[in-house]
Amino acid sequence: MDTQKVDLFMMINGKYFKAEHLNYIREKLLGIDETKWNRIMALDFKDPNSIMLVSLIGPGALGVDRFLIGETGTGVAKLLTCGGLGIWTIIDWFIIMDLTRDKNMEKLQAYL
Amino acid sequence: MSRNKLYLVLILLITAGYCWLGWSLTQTTHNINFTPCPIKNITGIACPSCGSTRSVSQIIQGNFADAFMLNPFGYIIALAMLIGPIWLLFDLISKKDTLHRGYHKFEQTLKIKWIAIVLILLTLANWAWNIYKGL
């Protein structure tokens, strides 16, 4: 893909990924076929900040934060246990942003 | 989620679950004032799964109808706590990943739209019932 398009992608979507992955994504995107551009631009990435907000307020204790990023299995576990007796809820406040970035990376990885 | 990470999380969850259940079973005088649920602590209103510990302990004592009336979620938890450790041990001993694959299939099933909608509605209905019962 040409540099201009890759830079555009990085500018729009850079905030959805971990900093240490950005270089890898850039290099991979430069190497892939032009035809994948439309599909990659149409990917729906989750914003770590809004997921963090959901996790902090009420729904986080019901596992809604995990349902939103596609971690349905652990989401159900969190819902059934009152947010892991309240402990899991607090742990998730700290790890949910990186978890969201990992999930976004997983989504993009399918096209790289 | 990778196999080993999933199994680690499950081991932690199941151990914590049994510790919690064991501790609450030893409380002979029912201390209603203590709840670990963050939603109930902050808002004073029961969450969809409030009362499931009481429900599981009713199942252990054989009062199945009482358990259902308290919170039907207790049955799901009791089932998971019964099957989970056995399945986990089977996989760990035989070095297979049947539980991991089962977990992924379960996640995919939950993402089917009509199943998700039905389950969300059931959860909301259970929540309304919990608030009505004043758990």
TrEMBL record, chain A:
Pfam families attached to this UniProt entry: TM2
Residues passing through the membrane, by range: 75-96
Limits of the TM2 domain: 60-94
InterPro entries: TM2, TM2D1-3-like
UniProt membrane topology term: Multi-pass membrane protein
Alphabetic keyword roster: Membrane, Transmembrane, Transmembrane helix
Superkingdom of this protein's organism: Bacteria
Primary localization class, coarse: membrane
Cellular localization per UniProt: Membrane
Protein name stated in the entry: TM2 domain-containing protein
Species of the source: Flavobacterium rhizophilum
Lineage per the UniProt record: Bacteria, Pseudomonadati, Bacteroidota, Flavobacteriia, Flavobacteriales
